[in-house]
């Protein structure tokens, strides 16, 4: 069942920006916020973090072998 809800212009703009920066649709973003309590601010921060990681990877900024070994030694190998 579809429901129509009027939201502010600012929220609508923020949702549209999230849709353009992710693979989620407008409805998925709204449903995620309502079903899982993930506010738009949380979703915006999540998408920004992913984009920053992708940009770092594109620049070749990866953990080196010593950094990986340190994490594996600290938490144990799975």
Annotate the secondary structure layout:
Layout: H1 9-21, H2 26-36, H3 40-58, H4 65-75
Gist?
The protein has about 80 residues and is mainly alpha-helical.
Looking at this protein, list some descriptive labels.
single chain, 4 helices
Strand content: under 5%
Instruction: Tell me the major beta sheet.
Output: none
Low-confidence stretches: none
What is the total domain count? 1
Chain-averaged pLDDT? 89
User: What is the C-alpha radius of gyration, as a whole number of Å?
Assistant: 18 Å
Describe what you observe in this structure:
It is a single chain. The chain has 78 residues and is mostly helical. The protein has one domain. Helices cover 69% and strands 0% of the residues. It is built from 4 helices and no strands. The chain has helices at 9-21, 26-36, 40-58, 65-75. Helix 1 (9-21) packs parallel to helix 3. The longest helix is centred in the middle third of the chain and has 19 residues, at 40-58.
């Amino acid at each position: 069942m579809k429901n129509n809800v009027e939201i502010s212009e600012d929220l609508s703009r923020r949702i549209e920006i999230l849709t353009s920066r992710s693979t989620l649709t407008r409805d998925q973003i709204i449903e995620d916020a309502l079903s899982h309590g993930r506010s738009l601010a949380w979703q915006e921060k999540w998408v920004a973090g992913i984009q920053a990681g992708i940009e770092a990877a594109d620049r070749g900024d990866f953990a080196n072998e010593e950094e990986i070994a340190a994490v594996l030694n600290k938490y144990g190998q799975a």
